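For the sake of clarity, the format in which proteins appear in this thesis is described at this point. The record quoted next illustrates the convention:

___
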Amino acid sequence: MCGIAGLAGADAARHEHTVGSMGASQAHRGPDGTMHATSIDGWAVLSMNTLLIVDRQAMPGPYLDCETGVLLAFNGEIYNYRQQAAAWGIPLAARETDAHLLLRAWAKIGPSCLDGLDGMFALAVYDPRAGKLFLARDRLGEKPLYWRLDGGRLAFASEVTTLTGYGAAPLVLRPEMLSVETPIGADTPFQGIQLLAPATLLSFDIATSSLHQHTWWTLENRQPFEGTYAEALADFSVVLAEQVPLRAPSCDFALLLSGGLDSSVLAYLLRPPVCVTVRYPGQDRLDESQIAATIAADIGAELVVVEPDHLDFTTVLPHLMGALDYPMGNASTFSEYMAYQKIAGLGLRVVVGGLGPDEFLMGYVRHALVLFGADAVLGAGMDAYRPLAAKLMHTAGEDLDPAEAVTRLVLRGPDPDGRIRSLVAAAMGKAGGDMARGLTLADLSTAWRPLVMTSDKLASAYALERRSPYLARELVELSYRLPSEYKISGPTTGKRILRDAAKALGLPREVWGSRDKLGFASPVPTWLNGPLSAWADAQIHTALAEAPTALQPLLEGGLTPGNRFDRTRMQALMAAAWFCDQTVRAAA
């Protein structure tokens, strides 16, 4: 996974050494070289950490268009770059890649080229013809990009800690870090540093120091699918079979195979040489390794099983939190980290995972709870989710507002100012009354950010490129357009259309017929109340001794043991490790 960093301003050339240091601080993202370049007018310096995937002999970035002076730093993959090169009439030499296509497309048609790109990316383009720096992110935010203003300069980087090294950025405890375990929107827990929103283009005019942002793609304005279910299944199956293989790299790669529906479908469509699964001995409820073994054997792949224990967690926590930059609410963080560590040890460069279907095809139990009610879900045999269903308890005889129900289900802490409630309501209001679409938009506004960013950050810590084939533009837009009943037809039948596609592909019944979603969930919350209890208390108390007042309630909340569904203690421990990491960085 590549990384980018840079600085734009009238005196940018004077700060070339600073940009070089910024790039060096995230060199783990690009083991094939970290380089920087200054624009022809001296108003921008761009750095790029290069990880070569498409062609190991390709030229590393940044990239300069000699005719126009346009300068590009690029992180990601454009999967349809050859098709777009033909469509735009842009020639590509034998050793040229998607970055060269993007550079020439920008020089030729400017920011409007973004709409033609299907892929994951974060990019920085300086165009001396306009005297502007442009920053852009892909549609669903697979690649991170942070920025900050400093007087008449704009600095940016793939990692927020790169920007904290550029200049002081005091810690700020965002209210959502208590509510949903991570900042939302453009906020970060560092004063003055923002995350560029997905599908957003930022332009910075050097001469006037003016800044403008606009959204270049939206999901909610898609027209509803009007065909029958049989027609929808046929269309969905075709798009699935066409789009997923486009995300397969030409080199050897690994698939994260949990044994669940999403990753199993990818296994059959991509035929990876290596599948990696994570299991925890003694945790039978979390163990899907037997199904994973069946799938791997069926497609002829090597299955690598990672078996972390509680001592592994204590060992890797500092590096894990350093890789994340700040706390993020994701139940499978530890499992993902251990899987990436193993994959990197195998000498691979690309890892594929199954993000997407849960959000777009109603795959979470919380979706069924909102759509069908707690009684229907529990009555369908999902009794393990009773603690979650209990959040929907309300005054008898009164209907619970859908936005309120969603808010209760996503909250993991207090929401005293109602910010999460307002965010959810606003997202659902854009869905035109379609509840399933509203749930998708609510997910993208709340829980999605930590999921997609955890995948990138942890993989990048091991110089791995993480790909998520279900996030193909055509597949995402079709999934969103489908009627609710095509996605979920009952309390236990989320991802209906994907299940039927999997059945047609010949997947085992235990995959497409499974009702429970496990993924790569870990027993860390249980460990923190058991064998790691004293250790966790010590970590939290150490952080409390020096933590700012605003952070103390979050930390103190973790000193009380909870049940296996309660991540409060885990959240506090992650915050403690994050604060200690920041203290060490500040002292360095």
The chain has 26 helices and 17 strands. The mean pLDDT is 93.
